[in-house]
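Example for tutorial group B:
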């Protein structure tokens, strides 16, 4: 296990600055995810930690050793890291055993040591029974586990993963999330994981760093940044959300389009505000609800029902449980209870905030 310390780090290519000043400590044994849209700088940060890129300014430390900064540069193979890439990068003509053993073979580790270490790591990644198979005889998830085993074989202090699940189908991606988290936790390895998939980040991370245009918009636990986003970009990128304009005064927010009020006793902001409401935080009821609307559309997705409700002049998205399709129907008048919402001051930045994700 290791601590990664990043001090005053920037990265530019010519006149284009892709990473603006980054200062952070990734704790020993922590699973950290760098999350953000394509081109935001997250993979560049990972490559700087790995040693495939050098910072323009600043330093990178692994434990008490500077690996990048000033005139110091430690090459990747001497940083005691393991890395798993987006592509599986397995040798098609080698068996699973030989693919995993390859890093030890090129280091000329003796055969007896290889025969001891490789089966242990194959057992950890649940590939023991496939040791003699070729990669074309494996599923995508099994090939990705071969790449993971190869990275773990040298017992690195830090494991770096660059969108390792993006080539897998949806169901396999879900199962691999939990496998990677379980394996790295059991080994106590510090992990830096790069993805643009917010569900992956939420499921796996101890802390998430949400990056946009080279700037960390917010860092924190999944719960912190989902339920207490620092700005509209963070709220929009993590999960589903809709924004509505309102007027906050006297312990209430009057939603202009809804022609309805929400209780707001904390009055953190007053005057014109933007109210962010996640569709799962609205409860539907055929009988109750002081806010009334009309069901315009329903999409049954099995575990949930995705609804569009006309409230005043607004169309409001509501994600209800799957059973709700038996209780409500298109054209029905329905009650709405807004259980949670997030308030931002209305500084006319919402549209600009939402544009910067693309």
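The residue assignment follows.
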């Amino acid at each position: 296990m290791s601590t990664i310390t990043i001090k005053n780090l920037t990265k530019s290519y010519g006149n284009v600055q892709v990473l603006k000043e980054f200062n952070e400590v990734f704790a020993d044994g922590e699973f950290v995810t760098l999350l953000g849209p394509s081109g935001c700088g997250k993979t560049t940060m990972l490559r700087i930690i790995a040693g495939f890129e050098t910072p323009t300014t600043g330093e990178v430390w692994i434990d008490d050793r500077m690996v990048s900064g000033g005139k110091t540069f430690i090459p990747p193979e001497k940083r005691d890291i393991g890395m798993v890439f987006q592509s599986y990068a397995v040798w098609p003509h080698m068996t699973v055993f030989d693919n995993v053993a390859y890093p030890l073979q090129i280091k000329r580790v003796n055969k007896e040591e290889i025969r001891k270490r490789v089966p242990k790591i194959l057992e950890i990644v649940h590939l023991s029974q496939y040791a003699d198979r070729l990669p074309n005889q494996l599923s995508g998830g099994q090939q990705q586990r071969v790449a993971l085993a190869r990275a773990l074989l040298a017992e690195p202090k830090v494991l770096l993963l660059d969108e390792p699940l993006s080539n897998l189908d949806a169901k396999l991606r879900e199962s691999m999330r939990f496998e990677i988290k379980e394996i790295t936790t059991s080994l106590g390895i510090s992990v830096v994981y790069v993805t643009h998939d917010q569900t992956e980040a939420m499921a796996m991370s101890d802390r998430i760093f949400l990056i946009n245009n080279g700037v960390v918009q917010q860092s924190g636990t999944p719960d912190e940044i989902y339920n207490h986003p620092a700005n509209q970009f963070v709220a929009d990128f993590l999960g589903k959300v809709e924004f509505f304009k309102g007027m906050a005064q006297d312990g209430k927010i009057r939603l202009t389009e809804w022609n309805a009020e929400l209780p707001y006793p904390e009055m953190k902001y007053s005057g014109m505000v933007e109210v962010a409401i996640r569709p799962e935080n609205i409860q539907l009821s055929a009988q109750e609800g002081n806010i009334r609307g009309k069901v315009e559309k329903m999409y049954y997705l099995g575990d949930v029902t995705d609804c569009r409700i006309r409230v005043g002049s607004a169309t409001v998205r509501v994600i209800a449980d799957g059973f709700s399709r038996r209780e409500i129907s298109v054209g029905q008048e329905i009650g709405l209870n807004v259980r949670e919402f997030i308030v931002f001051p209305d500084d006319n930045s919402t549209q600009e905030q939402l544009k910067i994700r693309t």
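The first strand starts at residue 4 and ends at 13. Compare this with the pattern of hydrophobic and polar residues in the output above.
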